[in-house]
Design a protein that fits this description.
Elements: H1 4-17, H2 22-29, H3 36-41, H4 49-59, H5 63-66
Length: 76
Amino acid sequence: MFDRKIFAARLRYLREQHGLSTQKLAGALGLKSKGAVTQFEKAVISPSVDTLVALADFFDVSLDYLVGRSDDPRRH
Protein backbone atom coordinates (compact mmCIF):
# COMPACT_ATOMS: atom_id res chain seq x y z
CA MET A 1 0.00 0.00 0.00
CA PHE A 2 1.16 3.53 -0.81
CA ASP A 3 1.50 5.70 2.28
CA ARG A 4 1.34 9.28 1.04
CA LYS A 5 2.59 10.75 4.34
CA ILE A 6 5.65 8.52 4.48
CA PHE A 7 6.34 9.23 0.81
CA ALA A 8 6.03 12.98 1.46
CA ALA A 9 8.46 12.86 4.38
CA ARG A 10 11.00 10.72 2.53
CA LEU A 11 10.86 12.86 -0.58
CA ARG A 12 11.48 16.01 1.45
CA TYR A 13 14.33 14.34 3.35
CA LEU A 14 16.02 13.13 0.15
CA ARG A 15 15.57 16.48 -1.58
CA GLU A 16 17.06 18.38 1.37
CA GLN A 17 19.95 15.89 1.69
CA HIS A 18 20.82 16.64 -1.93
CA GLY A 19 20.56 20.39 -1.39
CA LEU A 20 17.80 20.87 -3.95
CA SER A 21 14.91 23.30 -3.97
CA THR A 22 11.51 21.96 -4.94
CA GLN A 23 11.76 23.89 -8.22
CA LYS A 24 15.19 22.46 -9.07
CA LEU A 25 14.00 18.93 -8.39
CA ALA A 26 10.90 19.47 -10.53
CA GLY A 27 13.12 20.76 -13.32
CA ALA A 28 15.55 17.85 -13.02
CA LEU A 29 12.64 15.41 -13.32
CA GLY A 30 11.08 17.30 -16.22
CA LEU A 31 7.83 17.93 -14.36
CA LYS A 32 5.59 20.46 -16.10
CA SER A 33 4.33 21.89 -12.81
CA LYS A 34 7.11 23.40 -10.72
CA GLY A 35 4.76 23.24 -7.72
CA ALA A 36 4.24 19.49 -8.05
CA VAL A 37 7.10 18.60 -5.71
CA THR A 38 5.68 20.92 -3.05
CA GLN A 39 2.30 19.25 -3.43
CA PHE A 40 3.92 15.80 -3.17
CA GLU A 41 5.74 16.88 0.01
CA LYS A 42 2.52 18.21 1.55
CA ALA A 43 0.74 14.96 0.64
CA VAL A 44 -1.80 16.95 -1.38
CA ILE A 45 -1.34 14.89 -4.54
CA SER A 46 0.33 11.59 -5.38
CA PRO A 47 2.86 11.25 -8.18
CA SER A 48 2.30 9.09 -11.22
CA VAL A 49 4.07 5.75 -11.45
CA ASP A 50 6.45 7.28 -14.00
CA THR A 51 7.31 10.08 -11.58
CA LEU A 52 7.83 7.62 -8.72
CA VAL A 53 10.26 5.63 -10.85
CA ALA A 54 12.06 8.83 -11.89
CA LEU A 55 12.38 9.90 -8.24
CA ALA A 56 13.72 6.51 -7.17
CA ASP A 57 16.24 6.56 -10.01
CA PHE A 58 17.23 10.17 -9.34
CA PHE A 59 17.89 9.56 -5.63
CA ASP A 60 19.17 6.00 -6.18
CA VAL A 61 16.72 4.45 -3.71
CA SER A 62 14.24 1.62 -4.05
CA LEU A 63 10.61 2.27 -4.88
CA ASP A 64 9.64 0.30 -1.78
CA TYR A 65 11.62 2.71 0.39
CA LEU A 66 10.20 5.76 -1.34
CA VAL A 67 6.57 4.70 -0.85
CA GLY A 68 6.97 3.40 2.71
CA ARG A 69 6.97 -0.35 2.07
CA SER A 70 10.54 -0.73 3.35
CA ASP A 71 12.85 1.16 5.66
CA ASP A 72 15.88 0.07 3.62
CA PRO A 73 16.64 2.65 0.92
CA ARG A 74 18.99 0.35 -1.00
CA ARG A 75 17.97 -1.17 -4.28
CA HIS A 76 17.95 -4.94 -4.41
